[in-house]
Design brief:
alpha/beta, 2 domains, six-stranded mixed β-sheet, four-stranded mixed β-sheet, 16 strands
């Protein structure tokens, strides 16, 4: 899945060059290329697909990372339910028979690759062998309120999902020891996906079946019309939280969601004062800050702590690190300016 607009990485992430095509982890490749490389050992290059929005399909095509016919652009925005439903229907039309799928995302920092591959294979095997919807849970390292949580039983069954709890609840989850972060990665067969969707969300299932039937017969207009019947919901709410058979496989790899500027403090190598510095910058008496400079100009900071400073040829962003989640409001304001 690579459909997010990346507004919280404004001004570097733009519609013409979204965050998926940026190197935000210091690996020397874009987030999307790193995601494709991780999956290739699992399914082979010939079985890789990218699910994205219509708006982002052209920049992704231009990147040359994957063949154009392997880019699936949903007709409109319907949150991750729309992305998954369109992708599953498209794959059903392409495969023409039973198949299993691993749905991962393009905006995660994951290491090492071999541990990721091992965990994904376990998740796929679990989904197939137990006729279940499977996901990967990340052992939490802090009581983060920006992630969803999964309560996992000892046998791997999922007891419940909790979306972005408050600080007190997140601390309780961490102390309990049987809660994992929701990675947003999903694994299932088409048959199990359809069955669980039919039982848990009949309106979404009806739309999905119409999309699939139309794509199988090459009726693009009918597929789009059926897609637009979907309500905008996360796949977690629309399917996972309603399903009767859900399994969670604990991650064997390190993971972080590269969703906001402050995540660079966890995903790139820091200097001796705990700063994440990309590009020309000289942080003096500066701690715990992100300085991201794409220009030839030198950026200097003095006596500051916990700042985000982003400099591009046309825009400059300065905010506190604890306001990183709100950068999208600046991105939206800049479009209206």
């Amino acid at each position: 899945m690579a459909g997010g607009s990346g507004e919280r990485f404004w001004p570097v992430s733009t519609p013409a060059r979204p965050k998926q095509l940026l190197d935000l982890t210091g690996e020397g490749v874009s987030l999307l290329e790193a995601a494709l490389r991780r999956l290739e050992p699992v399914v082979g290059a010939e079985n890789l697909w990218i699910s994205t929005s219509t708006a982002l399909s052209e920049p992704i095509r231009a990147s040359g990372l994957i063949a154009e016919d392997r880019i699936l652009a949903e007709p409109d925005r319907r949150n991750t339910l729309g992305a998954v439903a369109w992708t599953m229907a498209s794959l059903a039309a392409h495969e023409g028979g039973p198949f299993a799928v691993a749905i991962t995302t393009s905006d995660h920092a994951i290491n090492p690759t071999d541990a990721f591959v091992s965990t994904v294979r376990k998740a796929v095997e679990t989904a197939i062998e137990e006729d279940a919807l499977a996901t990967i849970g990340i052992p939490p390292t802090r009581p983060d309120t920006g992630f969803g949580y999964i309560e996992r039983a000892l046998d791997g069954r999922v007891r419940r999902f909790t979306e972005k709890p408050n600080a007190e609840t997140a601390a309780q989850f961490l102390a309990a020891g049987d809660f994992l972060w929701n990675s947003g990665m999903f694994f299932w067969t088409e048959a199990t996906f359809a069955l669980e969707l039919e039982q848990g969300n009949p309106p979404a299932f009806a739309a999905y079946e119409r999309i699939k039937a139309a794509l199988c017969t090459g009726e693009a207009g009918a597929a789009t019309a059926a897609f637009l019947e979907l309500t905008s919901q996360s796949i977690d709410y629309a399917l996972m939280e309603r399903a009767s058979s859900v399994r969670c496989v604990p991650a064997e790899f390190s993971w972080d969601d590269v969703g906001t500027w402050d995540s660079l403090l966890r995903t790139v190598e820091l200097d001796t004062d705990g700063n994440a510095v990309v590009g020309l910058a000289h942080p003096l008496e500066t701690t715990g800050s992100v300085i991201y400079n794409t220009t030839a100009a030198k950026v200097w900071t003095l006596g500051v702590e916990g700042l985000i400073v982003v400099v591009t040829d046309g825009q400059i962003l300065i905010t506190r690190a604890d306001r990183a989640q709100d950068v999208r409001t600046v991105a939206q304001a800049s479009q209206a300016d």
